[in-house]
Amino acid sequence: MSTKGSSSPDISEEPNVGNIHEEINEEPIQGNTDGEGSNKGNNQEDTSGEHNQGSTNDINEEDTEVEKLTATKHNARKIFDQLKEDNVSKIILLGETGTGKTWMASKICEVAVEEKYDEPIWICLDKKHDKKSFLDTVARRFSLSTSADEREEDGEKEKKDKKVNNAKRVAETMIGKLDAVKKESKFVLLVLDGQLERMEKDQNEEMDHYIKEEILGLKDSMNNIDSLKVLITRRKSEKGDNDEKAKKFKLEPFSEGETLDLLRDNFDVSVYREELQKVSEAFQRPRRKPAEILMFAGTINYIAKDKSGELKAALEAAANGLEQLLHFAYDKERGNSMIDCFWHSWNFLGKHGGVHYNELITSWIMEGCLNHTNQIDKAYLEGHDVLMKLIDYHMLKLQEDNIIVVEGATREMNKFCRRGYLGTADPGLASVLKDIDETDLEEIPPAQVLEGITPADGMMRTLCGDKKEKMVSSLLIDGSRLCREVHDTFFGAKENLNLLAIFSPRLKSPEELSISRPEKLLVLMLRGSYLLENVNIVEKLKALTVLEISGSRAWTIKLSDNFFHEVSRLRSLDLTGAGIESLPDSFSELTELRRLILRQCSSLTQLPKLAKFSKLEVIDLSECTSLKKIQEKSFGKLEKLKVINFSRTKIEKLPIVKTLRNLTILLLKGCSELSAMRMLKQVSSLKILDLSGATNIKEIRYDCFEETENLRELDLSETQIQYLPLEIGNLQKLRLKGCKLLRNLPELSGHSRLEELELSGCERLENLPELSALQKLKILNLNGCSNLKSLPDLTSLLKLEKLDLHGTELWSEDVVKSLSHIKDLQI
Fold first, then answer.
1. DSSP state of 508
2. Class of domain 334-426
């Protein structure tokens, strides 16, 4: 449904159940989004929101009653025919993530509609549900009013509707439908799609009973209860699946022939046909899940369309499997908003399960993933375009009711893509808003503050009618748009405002806004606040959980000693660019903090003690160029820390971090006063360490990196080290640029993942170790290594793309000739 004043493309509010993956944009975008037209045989897979769970290969293989098949239209009709049988009341589709359970269920629904059955009731369990949201889903299917619709009602009609019990209306309608289909010897089909991981009381095996009794108002003793059939998709079988009227099917990966057919149907590439054929044949040899096949094809299509110059290299990466192709494609470009949006979604949807597409785009805007960070209309359009691409490329998936979930085949991407490290490490707003105690809140749970949000003329706001302004719970608005409003009128009626984000506010104080119930605000974001003179309103925001007041480096502000006294529930604090010299005493009361972002606070000279902040996960003090000291000698009590960024500060000593088993990223780039590196032994989760530009570092202890086998990126560029420890993890990238005192390197044969070896400017380096075992090496930069006497054997490095020998005496025609068999090598 399009909104008046909205700048968004029209997106259907009610997708056809028979076509769960239909295209949501009125104007077609090249790529395969819809279920039939462009997606010929598009076998979509199911996804659980908790994509960081353990293995899904836990179906009971000894269950002899489970029939095995693959996700095809023929098998969908076969299963629907089973539902027609009187002795079958429930069908359970089992299978690992990616085997096509959701797609199969959608095709079964299509068969139902084709055969003139009632349109099925589809409930997506990947979305985080409560009883109200379940009722709303069913009410929409029956064309009844929902809680969202009530926001748009006004006057007498609103008062009348409040007298009608929504649950009673749903139950009455359901009973009527069962009576009608019974007379035609048909049935109503209820689809429960996905694994509900976040139930509070009921178990998954009881979910169908819960839906029937609590939501549909049905009892097993009813005369017509047999006219309701249930189709369930799950990764694993549950105890309740052993009903005598239940039939189970397990979806298997595709055969070689099915894989090749699906690839051919979904490839959109007109060049490199010969190479494509070879890659397709190599890819199809193991049995493949439909989701893997579609992601493979979608990624190739993306590269062919937007990066055609990279296609040949991508196909060669693809010959080594899907992991290498994704690694190539999604880590290739830094600063790409589509990639940033995907990684945010990967983390956000993992916390919340499926969300409406508008909620997801809004979260991208709030997290700064898009290029248009200060213009909401343009940011929304950009976000919508990114979303369509991610669906086209099978990274995200559109489900019933315009719910977006991550594709299950992306579950392991964080293990081999750099952005995955960052996405996993930074909890973002998805985490800080999750599971907040809502005891003090009357209307909307904190985790649902974005529910029902929609674009509208320079704003993103909760959808409501003109006379229901008090129901507005969330508002994002441009400062220029806000200037057109009378603040008393605009904000005074919004009694339930939970989230307020103003981009480039033209305010001297937020108190100018005349917010009617400031004590209800959970999120306050004032981004680009270059005119602010005071923010004393914070002292009134007792429920505040997220606070961002960011400006430019020239922005100065004074915070009173009691500034944080009333906001002890705060979980995320972002004062980027604030001209503060220190934090007030009341900062020590913020013991619920997960994220502390003080980047670019160039006047900040000291930080209070952090020992009480045991829940802290991210601390970012980057570019606090006046900060010389961290008061703690040890961060030992901050056991949940995942990210430390002290880049370009003046700190002389890093607190002890060796006990931080969750630490993933440690950034000390440009810390020119740092004189020594702390022991990292046993920091087992560490993936990225950046000490580049820490020009006072002269030595790394020999046992510094013991038991850091997850370390993937190590950057010691421009330090004064002469040697490296023998053990330095299992690296993908080793950067030692400008290490002018470095004399030799340790043995690197154990670094089978190594892709980049950056040694430019290592003037005293005389010898290189054996490199022939580095089969994934792509970049070897020896520019300026003037003392290198010889090259090791490089002839086996078939992945090598760049060899820089400028400023050395190593280049010769013989070297070039010996490496001529390496196709894409540039010397």
1. S
2. mainly alpha
